[in-house]
Amino acid sequence: MITIQPLFGTNGIRGIVNEELNPEFITRIGEAIGTYFGSGDILLGYDARTSNSILSRAISAGLASTGTNVHEAGLAPTPALQYAVQNFKLDGAVIITASHNPPEYNGVKVVADDGIEIPREEEVIIEEIFSREKFSRRRWSELGVISKLSGVIETYKEAVKHHIDAAAIEKRHFKVVVDPANSVGSLVTPYLLRELGCEVTTINAHLDGHFPGRLPEPKPETLGKLSLAVNSLGADLGIAHDGDADRCIFVDEKGNICLGDRTGAIIIEYVLDRNPSSTVVTPISSSKMVEDIVRRRGSEIRWSKVGSTEVSRQMLKFGSIIGIEDNGGVFYGPHQPVRDGAMAALLMLEILAKRDKPLSELVASLPNYHIIKERLDCPNELKQKVLEDLLETTKSYNRTTIDGIKIFFDEGSLLIRPSGTEAIFRVYAEAEDERRAREIAELGMSLVEKALKLF
Ligand code: MG
Q1: What is the mean pLDDT of residues 264-277?
Q2: Is 7 helix (H, G, I), strand (E, B) or coil?
Q3: Is residue 99 annotated as part of the catalytic site, yes or no?
Q4: What is the pLDDT of residues 403-412, one digit of tens each?
Q5: Ligand 1 centroid from CA 10, angstroms
Q6: How remote is the CA of residue 47 from the centroid of ligand 1, in Å?
Q7: pTM exceeds 0.85 for this model
Q8: What is the 90 CA–ligand 1 centroid distance (Å)?
Q9: Catalytic residue among 65, 99, 183, 285
Q10: How far apart are CA 121 and CA 127, in angstroms?
């Protein structure tokens, strides 16, 4: 009896280089992915990590050994590679990246022919091929061909620009500071901004897989230098990407680092003003603030499970025009329904131009909620039982159970969710005033505590 080894997490296969991810393991992953796709044409690209020259060669060898043709795009943002799959009519892509993880990590994302990461049920097929070693290795005359593909970055830049009002941005000559975390965002965003008449200053823009400037996750702890640069240069906007440039965190003209759900909400408002009666997708963990602004504009919100692929797939299902995540993920349907850092950056510049207001004012105009985040220890083996009990005890509430349990109140919401990675239950409460947020958090904690006592 062979146990199927789970390989994929919420964002592909991740691990530390030469510990979990060594060339031998990655070659076998390549063989499993190649076997899954059959003999087809697969794009291969990567971010700026030190291990990418090793791992991309290993995975190429595995893919080609199963008869799959590998089109190497080299260094490119994840959304550029996703766009290229459709633009060059390929059968899928393999992206070597660990996105926002520290430099010692790397990973593998598998993308389908629609440019979106494959769903969980397809990942299971790859895990089965890998665990059973059912690799379809080809004879010497049927091996796949490994070749270079050029034009990925240029065609992507043109596609992003096609979706914005370039003239409106050009007129303003915005002053912008870009921090691409020493990775592939530097190949796209600063160039796009200069083409749009912006005065661009870059920090951490040379490619360096040691990430000497900052860690690749864009968050307040890593964006101090960007905030300082925006302030001292008197810039209109600061833009920070993660390691594979599918996320975008903004800094306002005062140097404040903005939360991703608030800048996402500004983008939603703008898109809905131009496209009334649309559908917006956001993970169940997003703030009620997002729901408020969607409903105020007479549009519909569709909650998804947590994870960018979940947002993308829901957008396709409901023909949604826009999706956001609170980590700086913006999914703009007319371009492609995947997280796209450069698209988010250009949409924000168009908004600043058209609304004729600084970002700090736009952020201040959004509804405010007090958010309380709690955690309760729960052994992994009990999580499912506790969740099942909670599903029973919360039946009478206005709720959705798409991923954990989210209960809606008139003045706030409560999310109870087992963590995917830690032995804990998370309790998120929010309300317009702090006292009510505390009450909702206490309700959430008591529900989980009661369920825990049963086992
Ligand atoms: Mg990323």
Answers
A1: 97
A2: coil
A3: yes
A4: 999 999 989 9
A5: 12
A6: 10
A7: yes
A8: 22
A9: 99
A10: 10
